[in-house]
Each structure stands twice: as C-alpha cells, then as structure tokens.
Design goal:
Belongs to the OMP decarboxylase family. Type 2 subfamily. This protein is 40% helix and 14% strand. The chain has 12 helices and 8 strands. About 2% of the residues have low confidence. Strand 4, helix 7 and strand 5 form a beta-alpha-beta unit. It is globular, with a radius of gyration of 18 Å. The chain has an 8-stranded parallel β-barrel with strand order 1-2-3-4-5-6-7-8, surrounded by 6 helices. The chain has a single domain, classed as Aldolase class I (TIM Barrel), CATH 3.20.20.70. It binds orotidine-5'-monophosphate. The site of orotidine-5'-monophosphate (OMP) has 19 residues, from strand 8 and helix 11.
Length: 299
C-alpha cells in the first residue's frame, strides 16, 4: 500500500476503462483508490487568509497559483481532492475557469475529484446542476459532487440517475460537522426517526446490492462523537471536520463504529496551512494518512 508521501505506483487508480465500455461505478473506483492510496480526501479551500499566508494576493492570479500548487503536489498521491466551489465562485467567471481547469487537471493526474458544491433544489433545477457536474463533457465534470437532501431526498433523483449513468458518485449531507446542523438533521419525523436517519436509509436503498461499495455517499462530520445513527449505507462516508474544526483521526472509530472502514476523512485547512511548498503539503497529507490508518486499522 502506498501513501501520500509517494506517488501511487498505479498512475491512474481512479480511471480504469471498463471492458464492456460501461463506466465503472464510482464506488468501485473509490474503493480501489482508498486501498492503493489510503482513504484521505484533501480539500482545496483557498480562503483569503490562506492566500495571504502563502504570500499570494487575494485575486484570480493568487487563486490560480494556490490551486495549481495543491493539484501538482497531491493529485498523484491522495485518493480524493475536494475543491470547495465557494472559494472559486467568489471570483466570478474567472474563478470558475480556475476551478474547471483544476478539476480536469486533478482527474488527469489520477485523483478522484469530489466537487464540493452542496447543491440542492427542486428536481427540474437539480437536473441542470447534475448536467454541470455529472454529465460527461459538462463544464465541471467530476467524479462526484456534494448535494443537500433537505428539499426532500426525491429532489435529488436527476443527480442520482445521471451519476449512475456516468459512473459518478453523489455525496449527500446527512449529519454535518457544524453545530447548527443538529436543529434540522436531528429533528424527529412523525415515525420517530431523525431526519438524518431518514436520509441515510434512502442512501442505503440506493446502494443496495452494490459491491465493493455503493456510489451514493453520506457526509457525516468527524466532530460529532457517537451519532446514534445507523451509518451502514453500503457507501462511502465523507468525514469532514478533522484539523481546523477540532476533530482528529483518533475520533473516527467513536463516530463511525463498525462502518469506519468506509470512511473517507476530509481535511482542508489542516493540510493547506503547510503550504506553499509542495513538500510541506505532501508531508502533512502523508502524516494524516498514517494517523488515519493507525486509527481505523483493526487492533
Ligand atoms: O461537504 C463537506 O465537505 C462539508 C460538510 C460538513 O458537514 N462540514 C464541512 O466542513 N464540509 C466542508 O469541508 C471543508 C472543511 O474545511 P476544513 O475545516 O478547513 O478542513 C469545507 O469546505 C466545508 O465546506
């Protein structure tokens, strides 16, 4: 098994052609990348404060330089890169052009790209979002995208269907890492289940029968402690909140219990603050990957 301190021996673990010419499902591609590169996701979140720390201006040129540095340093070794769309949208169309390029370059370098856009709208509008991120040839065609189910899980149907057709994944917010999320996500439905559990149960149905891993993931914060939720959705569990939000890899078993083997811990500032040198970024990612491995490996 290689780790983020070395390039993966497989130059392109995420993108193997299927002999039948059908796209290989995202869940299978992700499992392979997790096995060969370790399960870490590094977020590309070009905060204005990070641009300043890196000696860059808070402008499109600074954004471009920051993003290219992260992609060049890490796309050949971490399983997943997660650009946060908000930090690119902030710069308008020129920022979005930087994001488009980063998504394409990171995918060519072998990382799976999860574009963090947290889209959620009525189904007919959702279909347009799906075209953006999940249609082959779409401007931000990514391996996966984050979505919010809180307009009703069924509103996500156009994204779920297009993702399946394109061999892509969809990561659905379930229990978010921020403290404010609980008032919505932990509210109980008339059936007595939490709203988050209702969403997780939908995800489990989407992933039923998939092997080795379904392509519909849940987002569950690493900051939450024991959730009380049933996280056995047969899909990946994206766990943001490690680093700047206070969680550590050692928290993962307590949050995820027996589902910890499906966890993709996600870290943005906790890695990015070790730039601008590529070596610092790589060392930080490698150290985190080691800590994750130690925390989630069976004793
Ligand atoms: O979907 C996400 O990635 C996400 C979900 C969540 O519950 N909490 C959360 O922090 N995130 C994102 O994960 C990143 C966290 O960044 P750091 O706190 O710097 O590691 C940000 O881009 C957030 O938008």
């Amino acid at each position: 098994m290689s780790s983020p301190d070395q390039p993966s021996h497989d130059p392109d673990p995420g993108h193997h052609p299927d002999p039948d010419d059908r796209p290989e499902p995202f869940g299978a591609r992700l499992r392979r990348a997790m096995d060969s590169r370790g399960p870490l996701c590094v977020g590309i979140d070009p905060h204005a404060s990070l641009l300043a720390d890196w000696g860059l201006n808070d402008d499109v040129a600074g954004l471009e330089r920051f993003t290219r540095t992260v992609v060049d340093a890490l796309a050949d070794r971490v399983a997943v890169l997660k650009p946060q769309s908000a930090f690119f949208e902030r710069f308008g169309s020129r920022g979005m052009a930087v994001l488009e390029r980063a998504v394409a370059d990171a995918r060519s370098a072998g990382a799976l790209v999860l574009t963090d856009a947290k889209r959620g709208d009525i189904g007919s509008t959702m279909a347009a979002y799906a075209d953006t991120y999940l249609a082959k040839g779409g401007p931000l065609f990514s391996d996966a995208v984050t979505v919010s189910p809180y307009l009703g899980f069924g509103s996500l149907r156009p994204a779920l269907d297009l993702a399946r057709e394109s061999g892509c994944g969809v990561f659905v917010l379930a229990l978010t890492s921020n403290p404010e999320g609980a008032e919505v996500q932990r509210a109980t439905t008339p059936g007595g289940r939490s709203l988050a559990q209702v969403m997780l149960d939908h995800m489990a149905r989407e992933n039923a029968g998939a092997a080795p891993l379904g392509s519909v993931g849940a987002v569950v914060g690493a900051t939450l402690g024991e959730t009380g939720a049933d996280l056995a959705i047969n899909g990946p569990l994206l766990a943001p909140g490690i680093g700047a939000q206070g969680a550590t890899p050692a928290d993962l078993p307590g949050v995820f219990g027996p589902s910890v083997s499906n966890v993709v811990p996600s870290v943005s500032r906790g890695v990015l603050r070790h730039g601008p040198g590529p070596a610092g970024l790589r060392t930080a990612a490698a150290r985190l990957a080691d800590e994750v491995r130690a925390a989630v490996s069976p004793a």
